[in-house]
Amino acid sequence: MDESTPVAIRGLVKAYGAIRAVDGVDLEIGRGEVVALLGPNGAGKSTTIDALLGLTRPDEGEVRLFGRSPREAVAGGSVGAMLQSGGFPDDATAGELVKLTAALFKKPARPAIERAGITGYAGQRYGRLSGGQKQRVRFAVALVGDPELLVLDEPTAAMDVGARREFWAAMREYGRTVLFATHYLAEAEEFADRVVLLRAGRVVADGSVAEVRALAAGRVVSAVIPAVPGADDREIDSELATLPGVTAVARQGRRSLLTCDDSDTALRALLLKHETAHDIEVTAHGLEDAFVQLTGEDN
Amino acid sequence: MGVLLAAEVRRILRSPRFLIFTVGFPVVYFLIFSGLYGQGDTPDGAATTVYLMVSMAAFGAISASVSTGGRVAVERQAGWNRQLRLTPLPGWAYLVVKAAVAMLVALPALVLVFLVAGLFKHVDLTALEWLRVFVAAWIGVLPFAAIGLFIGQMATADSAQGMATVTMLLFSLLGGLFIPAFLLPSAMATIARLLPSYWIADTARAAVAGDAPALQGILVCVIWLAAAGGLAVWRYRRDSLRV
Question: Which residues of A224-247 are buried (b: 16+ CB within 10 A; e: fewer)?
């Protein structure tokens, strides 16, 4: 295994009882990449991150960070992490928490305190800080080992828009390899070089934001098709699926949703077939549609 | 490890609740009991006040160490130990620090009860006797540090405090710290002699007199220490692999 590869996950499987939370994930992240791990709740994001950090033992597969085991890489200070559930004791001050971590890593605390911008409230107890301030303290703790790789689980969950931008600006300036899990599509779209979409414990898409968006390529033509004598909705829809340019058909209330690889051709064919079709809309996919389409239950 | 220990102790000293319950109570109990039962001699020859002093110091030390272990449950639930696992600190060091904290927080209860007894209740021991009673009582806390740690690894944040309190009270009552074992019915006395809470006090009293600790006492304490410590390590490992 190449020592310069920050993250190399092969065939990762982790089951809790009958549920395979992670079901065969492969993921390689190169130096300097900023990668968003995107997926709905229960897609396996947190389990993947736990396995990545050595907080849970995989049932199958292998995780190597910089060619080492997660525990070695973490103990060696190559990896810093902000956990979603990383609770600090409320009765310790922000500064004490950073200094304690720094002492465990045998590194100075000051650079992390300054970079995370928590100097102003370092003397306050963690339990008395706001959600955004807490998140910054956790960021400072993640930075203390001066890590090459940062792993962040929902890093900006408690931040407002301004704080979120500031956070990512600091991250960019820091210039390390970053893997972050998020629910916020906009955050992935804006800050990630690469998006990895998880669904039911598997990677369903992996590429640049543009590439992933293109996976849900084409457009959606939606229209209300008036009833046809002798045919029910399902028959109409399955017939629509055979039109040129149409790849799939779904129904949303009275509307038929035609996913198209060539929406112009599809629309002409649709109007020839059903000249009374009305309320027609043609929309392009965004990352959100890709997300919904790729992570949805039936597709 | 030293830094984590220092940080842990600093946090505990910040909690007024801790000081009141684990340091204040034993001292107050000692003053009340020694006021009630005065200066007479107990059947085994030691002055009642010394007897009560040792019992209440042991009670305070047990209560401090067990409830400190219980605090681990709260931190576990919050995710603090997961956070520590993202540092070079090895898992065994975490457990050792927690046990060490439990030992350290037992000190104020011991020292304060002894101090009050010496200053206000005319307990007049030589320096060597003080040292012996202190060391014996403190070493006797070890099984309770392990028991507290096990509770901390097993309980949820909500149940930990209750479990720690019940555990501490049961050990203190059944171990004869509130009602001397020689006043208990024989079946109860037999039970008492199987508990480390009986032996922590018995050994400390023996130490005052300059007697060696009873073999049964050492055995009982070592077995409790090994059993509770083993269970705590087992729970810790299970926790680390699953969560």
Answer: ebeeeeeeeeeebbeebeebebbe
pLDDT of residue A216: 60
Question: Among A252, A244, A246, A248, which Cα is nearest to A225's?
Answer: A252
Q: Cα separations (Å) of B39 from B55, B116, B118, B122, B193? A: 15, 15, 14, 10, 26
Contacts of A88 in chain B (CB under 8 A): 78, 80, 83
| pLDDT band per the 50, 70, 90 thresholds, residue A248 | confident
Domain residue spans in chain B?
Answer: 2-240
Q: What percent of chain A has pLDDT over 70?
A: 93
Q: Do B83 and A54 touch (CB under 8 A)?
A: no
Q: For testing the chain A interface, which of B12, B83, B238, B239 should be mutated: the one with the most A CBs within 10 Å? A: B83
* A79 in reach of chain B (CB within 8 A): yes
User: Phi, psi (5° rounding) for residue A277?
Assistant: -55, 140
According to the model, what pLDDT value does residue A2 have?
Answer: 67
CA distance A140 to A135: 9
CB contact (8 A) between residue A91 and residue B14? yes
- Pairs across A and B, CB distance < 8 A: 70
Paired tokens of B83: 């956070």
Q: Which of A55, A128, A149 to mutate to test the interface with B (most CBs of B within 10 A)?
A: A55
Q: Do A87 and B4 touch (CB under 8 A)?
A: no
> In this structure, what token pair is assigned to residue B190?
């037999």
Q: Mind listing the pLDDT tens digit for each residue in B139-164?
A: 999 999 999 999 999 998 889 989 99
| Chain A residues near residue B241 by CB distance under 8 angstroms | 56-57
From chain A residues 4-33, the ones with a CB under 8 A of any chain B CB are none
Q: How far apart are CA A58 and CA A259, in angstroms?
A: 38
Chain B residue numbers with beta carbons less than 8 Å from the beta carbon of A101 are 87
Give the C-alpha separation, B45 to A258, whole Å. Answer: 96
For residue A125 the two structure tokens come to: 């107890």
Q: Name the DSSP class of B40.
A: P
Whole-angstrom CA distances from A206 to A38, B18, B82, B126 are 10, 52, 29, 76
How much is the average pLDDT of A112-122? 90
A118-126's contacts with Cβ under 8 Å and 24+ in sequence apart are A118/A94, A121/A94, A122/A93, A122/A94, A122/A95, A122/A98, A123/A93, A123/A94, A123/A95, A124/A93, A124/A94, A125/A90, A125/A91, A125/A92, A125/A93, A125/A94, A126/A88, A126/A89, A126/A90, A126/A91, A126/A92, A126/A93, A126/A94, A126/A97
Is A126 within 8 Å of chain B by CB?
A: no
